Amino acid sequence: MTATDTHRAIDAVWRIESARLIAGLARIVRDVGVAEELAHDALVAALEQWPESGVPQNPGAWLMATAKHRAIDLVRRNKRFERKQEELGRKFEAQQSAAAPDLDAALDDDVGDDLLRLVFTACHPVLSTEARVALTLRLLGGLTTDEIARAFLVSEPTIAQRIVRAKRTLTEKQVPFEVPRGAELAERLSSVFEVIYLVFNEGYTATSGDDWMRPALCEDALRLGRILAELVPQEPEAHGLIALLEIQASRSRARVSATGEPILLLEQNRALWDQLLIRRGLAALARAESLGGARGPYALQAAIAACHARARTAAETDWNRIAMLYEGLAQLRPSPIVELNRAVAIAMAFGPQAGLDLVDALAGEPSLQSYHLLPSVRGDFLVKLGRKREARAEFERAAALTRNAREQALLLERAAACGE
Fold first, then answer.
1. pTM here?
2. Strand partners for 403
């Protein structure tokens, strides 16, 4: 194996093992930042040793053992500094001898529990949403600062600063490395769900830049969602969330043309939809429903996605059911964006004028004034009503509001198709 091959292997192992490694170490040192540093020390050791010695048969265990020894040394050093001079001696040596087995046992505990603790720590509400996303991708997604920066089209120093501040905040606020209980668990779970959902959405429809999608972000969110669903198997919304992501991800190949142009849902070649992901999504939705979570916000959105997945053609879509599900979602989590989506479903079920009436009622909503999909949806209804001049103006306004180059080009094409 060449040095290049070895480095590729190390990169692959790090992607797979880094979250487990950091999680195990964080339980020992009780500091996410220190745990990450120890894990990176083990990575550096691998980069130095594996090109000569070869990749170990169990590379994850090698990294864990290396990091574990460094963690034990760190705990021992800290204990030495913390104790008074007169306490150093035979008693401390005895405690030292007992410490290593305890640490070994701690690191050998259930890794799933460690990962769950790491998820809740990285997504703690004491951090801003942007910080939670960056820290989650760094600690659980294994992404570098540069990769996160490129994914969200912000500068690398900005992301680095967010991560540093997030770790400092967790330390200063003394956020415990633990899974919360009772009412706090539900509150914190919603924060975890939100982060995974935001990461997926940014990958599924990029808010800015030259690409319509960023598949790597979708894959990271899917992986995190699957891990979470395994770690909290009795939580309905964990299955509702992963059901939504699996079904949405199933359309990825059909959403972009060979040259990168966006393809809207009703125009997609459904033969390209990934049936394995659809089956996984439907199974997760059934699991959420069996746990009593059919009316959860993510389960409702997954049920909407399932309506599209079950339709063999766009014409067979059950828009009446979709409209009903959006109504349920609007009652549960009222928002202008949910109402806009409901307007689309109403238009498909009962005609464009019915949808236009709902959209026009949203025209004064402050939060939608800079939201490009409002004029885009309105333009679509106007085209169907034969009011093409008005539709053209709406598509042009939508194009001016979006920051995604691919989406802007699509909207301008739609405007041009309306004629003068």
1. 0.77
2. 208
